[in-house]
Structure formats: C-alpha cells, structure tokens
Design brief:
- This protein is an alpha/beta fold.
- The radius of gyration is 19 Å and the shape is globular.
- The chain has helices at residues 65-70, 100-114, 126-137, 156-163, 175-186, 195-205, 238-242, 262-271, 292-316; strands at 7-8, 22-27, 33-39, 49-52, 78-81, 119-124, 142-148, 206-209, 212-215, 249-254, 276-280.
C-alpha cells in the first residue's frame, strides 16, 4: 500500500447549487489530482457517505442520490469520488496504475484529507469491489456498505461484454447520436429506458471539449481488462465480503444484470441473513440510482447505519 500523503486543494471558483454539490481536488499519494464532488455541510450530524463509481463511470451517477442523502433526515455529508482516469480526475500517465491497489490508496487519501471516516460506502460495480477490499485493508473506515450491482462473484459474461466496447465506442457528433450509440450497445440490458434517459446517459458518457465530444474516461482503462477470459473466472471475493460482517449491508441488483447473478445474491443472504436486497426490474448493469422509491430505500438503509454505529461501542463491551 502506498504511503498516504494528501493535500486538499482550494475549491473551484465557480458556484454550484446545493443539489449539484461543490467540486474539490485532492492530491493523491503519487501527486495525481482526484476530483471530488461534495454535498452537505461538514458538521452535518448524520454518518458521512462516500460514493464510488464504476469502472468507466463518474460522480454523475450519484447526481440524484447524493443530494437526496445530504438533504435527508438527518442531514449528512456526502462525497462522490472520480477515480483516476475518470471524470474530472487526472488521467494517469502510466495506465498500469489503473488497478485496485492504487485506487484503494486514492480512496484512503481522499477520505483522510476530507475527514469523512468512518462512512457508509456506496460502491457501484468496481466501486463495490473497492468497498469490499476496504473492509479488509481499513475496516474501521466503513460504517455500512451499499453494493450496487456487484458481489463477491463477478460473472465473466458481463466482464467480456464490457471489455468488448470500453475503448471501441464510436465517436458521436452530438449527444443525440451518443444516445443512439448507447441504446444499440445496451438496450438488451435496459429495454425500457426512455429517450430522455438515454440522452442523460450520453451526457454522462461524453463531454464537450474543444468543440467535439470526448469520453468521460481514459480509453486506456481497457488495458486492465486485457486478461479477462470467460473460460477463466475471476477468484471470488468471499473473504472480502465477510470483512463487512460487522456493518450493515445492502445490495442493489438489476434484474437483467450479467455481472451480479441472482444466485450470488442468494449466497450473500445465506452468509448475511440481515442483508437488505433490492432488485430493479427491466434494468441491467448498473441500474440507475434514481426514482423516489429507490432513493428512499437507500436513505432508510443509511439512516439505519447511523443507529448501528451508535450501538457498536455497547456491543464491544459485551452488553448487547
């Protein structure tokens, strides 16, 4: 694990409304700048929440969830992190650094710099894997975990599908064409998204730079998937999942997901009968974190983590 040595840069000069959050940059252990979007006050009474996006995803995935949690009851501080090579974080000159060890150190750098530990971690896909790894490497930093369409067993079929397009997505002329591209790639996973939802997905996947649309991630991330082979399953992460044994867990699965299977969710519930599981119909990997009902369920789970945190000192004393 790299030595943590962080510095919090000054916030950006532009203003944002509370629901959009405010941008900061944190210098990681190797000098690379990481973008963080922060919601809520630093003195908010609720347990903080840390949102970790998926493999090629950004803080935009939490644009509905983060303000809902920050402005809920109780109010709480929420930070969403753009992993290196994604969103507004710097791209790494060495793509070999797009790995779990470095990215885990990045998360530690950010949470220490911003003083948000312990926190409830909302980990989407790769962010959920990092959450499970964090439970082993830094267990006291986690007060609860939401595993968003990811679990200890990662289905090879889904990884092969993602590998097939990460660095091969066609270049759209505008966001409307980008929405059409994503619809062609992912309609089997998301058969009922509206035209507005596909357009919103395009705006999360590309951004306008220099008069042309560019991906919101470093295409060289594809190199980390080079060794993926459907005939060679990834090692399961049951030990890392079991590292979350002392904190509440919620899992959210898209019913059409080819990354997290229903069988894996069932096995997770066998190990953790108190696990809260939600399945989103007509959506795949990863289901959208939006809609009043889903946001309310996540907010309720996070609030329950507050109560669990207050009980932990008594439990450690042996007076349950």
């Amino acid at each position: 694990m790299p030595t943590v040595n962080t510095a919090l840069d000054a916030p950006e000069p532009r203003e944002r409304t509370p629901d959009q959050g405010s941008s900061h940059f944190v210098t990681a252990q190797d000098g690379l700048r990481l973008h963080v979007c922060e919601y809520g006050g630093r003195r908010a009474p609720g347990t903080p929440v840390v949102c970790l996006a998926g493999f090629t995803r950004t803080v935009a995935d939490f644009a509905a969830l983060a303000p809902a949690l920050a402005n809920g009851t109780p109010r709480r501080r929420v930070i969403a992190i753009d992993a290196r090579g994604r969103g507004r974080s710097d791209h790494d000159a060495n793509p070999q650094n797009y790995n779990f060890t470095v990215e885990l150190a990045d998360i530690v750098s950010v949470t220490i710099a911003l003083g948000v530990s312990p926190a409830v971690f909302v980990g989407s896909s790769r962010g959920g894997i990092l959450t499970m790894l964090m439970s082993v490497a830094h267990p006291t930093m986690i007060a609860g975990a939401v595993l968003h369409d990811v679990g200890p067993v990662i289905e090879g079929k889904g990884l092969v599908r993602i590998k097939s397009y990460v660095d091969k997505v066609p270049q759209p002329r505008d966001f409307a064409e980008g929405a059409d591209i994503l619809r062609r790639l992912m309609s089997a996973q998301f058969p009922k998204l509206t035209a507005e939802q596909w357009l919103a997905a395009a705006r999360r996947n590309w951004e306008m730079k220099g008069g042309r649309l560019t991906l919101t991630y470093d295409p060289r991330l594809a190199r980390t998937l080079a060794a993926i082979d459907i005939e060679r399953p990834l090692p399961p992460l049951w030990n890392e999942f079991d590292g979350l044994a002392r904190v509440p867990i919620m899992v959210i699965r898209g019913a059409n997901s080819d990354v997290l299977s229903a069988a894996t969710v069932a096995a997770m519930r066998q190990r953790r009968p108190d696990l809260r599981a939600i399945e989103i119909p007509d959506q795949g990997h990863v289901p959208l974190l939006e809609g009043d009902e889903l946001l309310a369920q996540i907010a309720g789970f996070v609030a329950a983590c507050d109560a669990k945190g207050r009980l932990q000192p008594t439990e450690r004393d042996g007076h349950e």
